[in-house]
Amino acid sequence: MAKILIAYSTVDGQTRRICARLQQLLEARSHEVTLVQMTDDRAIDADPFDKVIIGASVRYGKHRRHVHRFVAQNARKLDGKPNVLFTVNLVARKPEKSTPETNPYLRKLVEELQWRPDHTAVFAGRLDYARYGFWDRQIIRLIMKLTGGPTAPDTQVEYTDWGQVDALAERISTL
Fold first, then answer.
1. Can you give the residue ranges of every domain in the chain?
2. Among 12, 56, 19, 15, which Cα is nearest to 34's?
3. Distance from C-alpha of 82 to C-alpha of 174, rounded to nearest angstrom
4. Distance between alpha carbon 159 and the CA centroid of its chain, in Å?
5. Which residues pair with 33 in a beta bridge?
6. Which CATH class is domain 3-125+161-174?
7. Which of 44, 28, 49 has the alpha carbon at shortest distance from 169?
8. In this predicted model, what pLDDT tens digit does every residue of 95-126 receive, in sequence order?
9. What is the rounded CA–CA span in Å between residue 64 and residue 66?
10. What are phi and psi of 155, to 5 degrees?
């Protein structure tokens, strides 16, 4: 049994849903899992944990600053234990951008962090126009139009491949 930290940053909650699924699957394998949201006012210490998982969402092409701060504060600790970094973004809905090697947001994040995680993963997010505020809805619809995605204002699409999430939990369990 390992003590596992899952630290995440989310905008609309899909990254949290993915992390909660990982938590459930890892706890079913007898691991002790702590799920913590990264915020501006929360310092998270990775030291007491055997493994660290970082989940990071993307909005308008950027990961939130909480992810950068967490890694900067814990880089030496992360290097000393098994770790995973995954990103959640809508561009990953496209097969040619759905792997760690081909996803531009994950590649950019790893470059910016100047830290090399042991394992990386990419998950497509969830598109739900009804949940967004007016401006977010308009901007995301424009982005979807430009990238060939759905633009109808009542669109709700679950792009996350939950089988891939389950496979990541298995991988984490054996790290």
1. 3-125+161-174, 127-159
2. 19
3. 10
4. 14
5. 4
6. alpha beta
7. 28
8. 999 999 999 999 999 999 878 999 999 999 99
9. 5
10. -65, 135
